[in-house]
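Quick note —
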Amino acid sequence: MIHFVIGTRAQLFKMAPIMLECEKQGLEWRWIYTAQHKETIAQSLETFQLPLADYTIFDWDSEAKTMGKVWYWFLRILLQLSKGKKIFAGYTGKKHIVLTHGDTLTTWWGALLGRLYGCQVMHVEAGLRSFNIFKPFPEEINRLITFRLANYYACPGDWAVENLTKYKGVKINTHQNTQLDTLMFGLKNCDRSEAVLPNSKYVVASIHRYENIFNQNRFSDILEKIKFVSDSFIVLFVQHPATEEQLKKFNLMQNISNSKKIKLLPRLEYLDFIKTVKHSEFVITDGGGNQEELYHMGKPTLIFRNETERQEGLGVTAVISKLDDKIINSFIDNYKDYERKKLVEYESPSEIIANHLKGMGYGK
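Predicted structure written out below.
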């Protein structure tokens, strides 16, 4: 049996194409949901025409969008580690494999659960590094823990493979991130979206990383810079649940909502987001997945971070701002220089992973 462990929407988006490819190849799989992100998950499943989770670790009406809720949720799922037999529906041992993704708390929790019950563990999107333990925090630590627990590493490129040299597991070079398969699905289907777009030039802003939104001074600075961008463009500011929560907590909501050229949007469903980004001038983001997607779309990208664990797009479509006004101003003045043609032909990373799973005898 192939077990997918998923906790966030981003993980679902990047695991969905592997799940669909396994289905296509007739491999038996199921998925386990930790509910780290709860809101809109049903819509996301509908987008990819995937079934509800086979097992939900923690059933609640909220999601881990404040630090208090994060630790409450994490404590609850740690207590569930003793129920592995039930969670895996009896499919435990070396004949079965757990696929866990990325760099969240769910990532290493899934890997640990698999190892505790004798399963093999594959880390998808393995080998990405910022090489700074506390930036981003806790993502870099989550990755390092998962590296120690994994048996197989699905690495999105040579650089990621090289970063895992000291780890003994089997490295599988998928050449690209599975996010690319998701993006191609999104571009093919985004015309189904009913998202209403501005009639004039606009940019999209998507900020959600803990390092940005849980530090009041840094978050305030980011909002001021977004307001500066709005002097030249309409800004569609996508509010992730955690972002909205921190805007309210720090009394910053009015500060940004008073601007006539900043439009606050709820977190968008995937096809709505792709359609909105596709027609934008450029994107301001702190998301690693966004960085990759936008590179493949050829979309100019201004990254509101100091470091990134990804190489895609840097100096080509993307600039790391470090929240430096000079870098930001230069990008705004010259953003067209970072525009490229979108990727057309590629080898599917999800198909590479499914082929390896099939070749190793999992899911049969």
